[in-house]
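Why do we bother with holo predictions? Because pocket geometry can differ from the apo form. Keep that in mind while you read this record for FNR.
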Amino acid sequence: MTIITCIEDLRVLAQKRVPRMFYDYADAGSWTESTYRANTSDFSAIKFRQRVAVNLENRTLASTMAGQAVSMPVALAPTGLTGMQHADGEILAARAAEAFGVPFTLSTMSICSIEDVAAHTTKPFWFQLYVMKDREFINRLIDRAKAARCSALVLTLDLQVLGQRHKDIRNGLSAPPKPTLANLINLATKPRWCMGMLGTRRRSFGNIVGHATSVSDMSSLSSWTSQQFDLSLSWKDVEWIKQRWGGKLIIKGIMDAEDARHCVEAGADALIVSNHGGRQLDGADSSIGALPAIVEAVGKEIEVHMDGGIRSGQDVIKALALGAKGVYIGRPFLYGLGAMGEQGVTRCLEIIRNELDLTMAFCGLRDVALVDKNILLPGSYPQ
Ligand code: FNR
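The structure, written out:
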């Protein structure tokens, strides 16, 4: 039996079990991957102050994100084509998150549709929206998210154009997969893990059926993106979406204090400091590097969340210490899903929860709400 004690163990197992082109799709960053690497390495540079002889009884990680109660301030990030890591991946991840009491965010570009996920869960999940040119299509997606009782809309603004990932091009990643010899050999040796795309139930993007029929590979996905995604997007559109949705709005993809100010003016409930997990602007700052300036600029007016590079509970608490109200994990839960399905996502959340709880204790705290810069070694963190 494989022993899983950390997120890295899940990654290694996922790499063994998931066909290479699907694993690479999840694991890669754009171009030189410098921002992708910085997302994790910049966390390592931050140091804690260890405290002793403090009462550590009755610790709690319970918090809220965008007004919603969470068992710990960690949500699952929206990830497109999650069903490539495991058949029905979106449903399995949503169920694991629901059981754990943390938010699951369904991507516009998911394989399982909004209705599929709603039919297999009992509590509201969050829906992530990309802004397409076709406003009627956005209207329909918003109506479908409302009908499914989604309790927050996560509006992603950092993907008007698509960053290039060399591995996807080299692997000939397509949706659904193209039957090249290398792909067939790879898929045939790991069949059970890729049924989301190859199985009979779901073969393509569940939410955009009819809009993505022409997408056959990554280069056509890139040109489809530039055809469909709104290159003329402005903050006026964000205000329109806020009004049209009418519920909790979380704006994702903010790396600049001026853009954070626009989020406040647009009436968002929260923003996510995010560089899309290093998959878009290669050469941008790490998310943890960008967080303090944004908290400083708007933290008193709006909830600031972050994602990018979180691989442990230690990373979660560092982000909270620098002012994040909550964080999101992308690849860690995808590794869990690819390694062990729903059980793997649960294991991922357990690992992060245990690490977060123990690290909080080592720092001398009992309540996650009390985490602040005082737990960090001065001079070791970005200002
Ligand atoms: C993403 N991300 C993403 N974001 C989004 O708003 N909509 C999407 O459809 C996707 N798709 C997607 C696919 C895959 C495979 C990955 C890895 C990421 C970005 C995601 O929400 C989040 O910002 C990052 O994953 C956070 O970084 P970590 O936790 O993966 O390091």
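The domain at 7-375 is CATH 3.20.20.70 (TIM Barrel).
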